[in-house]
Amino acid sequence: SVIQRNADCLAQIDVLSALAAVAESNRYSCPQVEEGNEIVITDGRHPVVEKTEIEGGFVPNDTYLNASDHRLLIITGPNMAGKSTYLRQIALIVLMAQMGSFVPAKEARLGVVDKIFTRIGAADYLSKGQSTFMVEMREVSDILRHATPKSLIILDEVGRGTSTYDGLSIAWAVAEYLHDAPHLKGAHTLFATHYHELTDLAKLKEGVKNLNVAVKEVGDKIVFLRRIVPGSTNRSYGIHVAQLAGVPEEVLLRAKEILHNLEKGEFDVTGVPKFARGRKKTKVPPFQPRLFQDEEELIIEELKHLDIMQLTPLQALEQLYRWQKKLVRI
Ligand SMILES: Nc1ncnc2c1ncn2[C@@H]1O[C@H](COP(=O)(O)OP(=O)(O)OP(=O)(O)O)[C@@H](O)[C@H]1O
Ligand SMILES: [Mg+2]
Predict the structure, then answer these.
(1) Cα(211) to centroid of ligand 2, in Å?
(2) Ligand 2: centre distance to CA 119 (Å)
(3) Could you tell me where the beta strands, DSSP code E, fall in the chain?
(4) pLDDT tens sequence across 52-100
């Protein structure tokens, strides 16, 4: 048992000297771990990404979280801007500080968290009968059930594994729950997302703040500044990133065309979404009487089944208006 005890001592010395060596060679600083519930990081860095070859070097960023008006941060910004990196660097700094290491930041002052939850990436476990989205939802469920007011929660693009509306609805409801549920009040959440609608939460909830990753537009190119700034953004520059990745020009042009139409929110009267049209050699689909007939039949069916006695005069008027609008559009 003396040997065992000596081995334990040596193991500890080994770990601590390794942490010290890493701290020394990477300019880490001593974090201040305290009783409160703030997380204040100045010039934080990602310990692994900062070691990779990056043009212009790694850009450090600040973080501020507390248990009241800065407890849920929504992070938007273009693809490739650095959202995931930022989320992970915060989780790593907190983890390193609590395990007794120095941290990759100029300064860090943090209250102790009891658990760090993460929902990151897009893995599946097909052999265990779990699809990508199933895995995502199981992890979210786990977080919502087990987080506490002292937890740190990292959500990277929750909801993206399903259709846009389902995904957005889930993302919104999850964020709202994390903010509102009494048994979670005070938990720190960072939520990176491409659903720009989520940034509206900041207008409705006192604890929500928006952050985005700054980019600069130079002509039709964008420059990634990697700097986290307050506020929201509503562009993803996804097509630009697709171009950087080498997606064929023809596909990119077509995607731009579709984006243009989508942003105008147009739909063809014949039911064909205008976004799928080309701008030049547009081929308008032939007249489709069947479609209109169906619509009229639908209105007649609705009328047949309408329970008039249950309607207020106003509701009846609204219904009439809806039908007329549909018929006029036809
Ligand atoms: N602070 C930073 N300084 C310098 N380079 C960075 C920084 N953050 C991220 N990068 C670089 O940008 C790349 C993309 O970052 P990241 O994956 O975090 O982007 P993202 O915003 O999450 O993109 P997506 O929306 O596509 O998930 C990283 O691999 C890294 O090389
Ligand atoms: Mg990401």
Answers:
(1) 14
(2) 12
(3) 32-34, 39-44, 61-65, 72-76, 107-111, 116-119, 152-156, 188-192, 208-218, 221-230
(4) 998 889 999 999 999 999 999 999 999 999 999 999 999 999 999 999 9
